[in-house]
Amino acid sequence: RRRDLPSSMSPQILLARASSSETFVPSPCSLQSVAPTRCRRRRILIGSIVGSLASLALIVVAAPAAPLSLVKRSAAFASIYWGFESTHSSLSGIDIANLSLCTLFYNGTDADQAYLADQIVANARYEAGLPPLAPGEAMAHGGKFFTIVHERFVCGGDEKMAYRNVWKGGNNFIRGNMQEGMENCTAASKGLSVNVDKAFEFSFVRDPFSHFVSGYREATMRTYKQCCNAPTQEGALPTPRGEWPRPIRESQELGWRCRYDCSLFVGEGTKSLAKAVTSDILDLSLFHGSHWNPNFVHVALMFANIFGERSWRRPDFIGRLESIGSDWDRMCALHGCPERLATYGKLDESTGQHKETSSDRYGHGAGLLALFEEEPRLKNAIHKLLRLDKDCLREHTAPASGTTGTRRLRDAGDFIELDSWLER
Fold it and tell me: What is the C-alpha to C-alpha distance for residues 359 and 129, in angstroms, rounded to an integer?
């Protein structure tokens, strides 16, 4: 017969009990042939076991870092909705699966940003088989990943142009051409006041996953050269320069610690390096605290640089590097550019070249892509971590309308490598 569950049971007990379709099986103690003493012992033992399991279940439910709800699911955003709640965020409790997060995040309050960052990081970590961070830790630890702002590059007199920097987004190429074609150029950080009220502001972005791979190559190359001595003999491995890294061309120490074994930066070790770094990025440990490594700001979100500073107005134009030829010409036709910069064909491709970082000389990028091919769940986790950039790209740029700037397509369309003068 079917068992009716008392309505007074708590939700936790109801979840722990069998469903309403469970079939009742009589206990041996309900049979008259079983001795009463044996039944009492059996009840005491079963009661002890059930009590222990119930206590363990309550501890798990109360743990602050555990997901509070595993119910709401959406293939569009993630396999799971973590249900982080905040009494300070107006977004608390809503299902963000099918929403574009760009405007919600960058127009949101600090509490809104913390809430959305928790959701994004938890979904990325879930994809990689990792538990969520505690509520609030995503922004507390990864604030530089989500909102870091590099600077604006401002040139001109009465008619100014201001470029919003995006590292690994052709910024050296764009800045170099502005400096050659205009006067009075200044790099303006958040703390430097520059009058840009009448300036035409613009920026360029690229496919978010490709930007991540390019930033990873830059970050690992810099870390390798600052932390390790290159081998002097064929077949030898790099050796550490010391616990504290040093600038590539200088002797003073930098304010962060070397973290990775030097042997991982060459040869077959690059795939193991990629796995270690990917794990640290999903932990957000490279962006704060004792594991802080400023080189990895190169993998920070592109739109963090564009929208991360609330006191700065939004750019007038945001183009895509994959179609920079047509987008640059369209930008100048709409907003006007100095004669020297009026068309993409007039720009100097040799300006600002970083050949070493653009060529993946040490195979770090190849090691990362090999890891992603071997463990696609890690690649999917990174894709989910880049959710804000993907949404902002759709909201604020037109689809790529040409192929100028795209050299070749690799890894089933996930990694788009640009012309060398744009890979910096």
Answer: 33
